[in-house]
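Project outcomes to date are best conveyed with an example. Our students and postdoctoral researchers have been running inverse folding experiments weekly, and each run begins with a structure described purely in tokens. The record below, which covers 198 residues, was selected by the lab manager from last quarter's runs and is presented without edits.
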């Protein structure tokens, strides 16, 4: 059965290596009946979290900051699969991708507000986080195990704490310039991973 797939692409390069991997992955997903909703978050108006702890009142717009995150909250709640696609920046996600992850905290606040008002069922409905699956897609310059160790550790923790089930990772070293991914077998790996979701 096809899945609702949410792709969060954190690369600021429109035609970069992350975009190429995302396109291959999406093709695989769509060819096997999944629906892909993609956000190029580095090209959107998404501010970093302010840490005000004041969100959660409205589950459809749970953050106090009103920007393009509102579209992502809705897509996140509807998604079966969350795809974290980002180039490696300083052994982690780009700041733009990380801002989206931080801002998802407002959905947890909405869940807490709902729990206070209407019990655990309402809280679960507000967060709609549990039961989701997750994928990591990341190109990087350095092609060593050591280079990827910090992001793998972070991703594993994120999946565990967010209640996401890891469906697979495409980690590609040795690509630096935009377009360097052309002809790389990782593109087929991404396609196959997308196709395996349904
Ligand atoms: C600010 C910045 C930080 C980077 N940090 C790393 C890094 O820590 N490790 C690495 O292997 N590559 C690093 N890179 C290289 C990118 O991950 C690589 O160029 C990637 O293919 C870019 O993907 P894109 O074309 O989708 O933007 C960095 C690049 C930039 C611009």
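After processing, the design step wrote out the following sequence:
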């Amino acid at each position: 059965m096809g899945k609702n797939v949410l792709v969060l692409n954190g690369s600021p390069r429109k035609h970069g290596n992350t975009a190429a991997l995302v396109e291959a992955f999406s093709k695989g997903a769509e060819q096997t009946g999944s629906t892909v909703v993609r956000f190029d978050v580095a090209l959107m108006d998404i501010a970093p979290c302010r840490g005000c702890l004041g969100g959660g009142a409205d589950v459809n717009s749970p953050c106090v900051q009103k920007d393009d995150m509102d579209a992502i909250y809705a897509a996140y709640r509807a998604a079966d699969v969350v795809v974290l696609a980002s180039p490696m920046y300083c052994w982690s996600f780009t700041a733009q991708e990380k801002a989206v992850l931080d801002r998802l905290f407002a959905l947890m606040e909405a869940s807490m507000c709902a729990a206070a008002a209407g019990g655990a069922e309402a809280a679960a409905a507000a967060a709609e986080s549990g039961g989701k699956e997750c994928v990591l897609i990341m190109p990087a310059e350095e092609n060593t195990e050591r280079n990827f160790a910090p992001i793998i550790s972070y991703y594993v923790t994120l999946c565990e704490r967010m209640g996401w089930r890891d469906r697979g990772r495409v980690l590609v070293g040795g690509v630096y310039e935009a377009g360097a991914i052309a002809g790389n077998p990782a593109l087929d790996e991404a396609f196959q991973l997308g196709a395996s979701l349904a």
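The two ends are 5 Å apart (CA to CA). The mean pLDDT is 94. The training component of this project remains on track.
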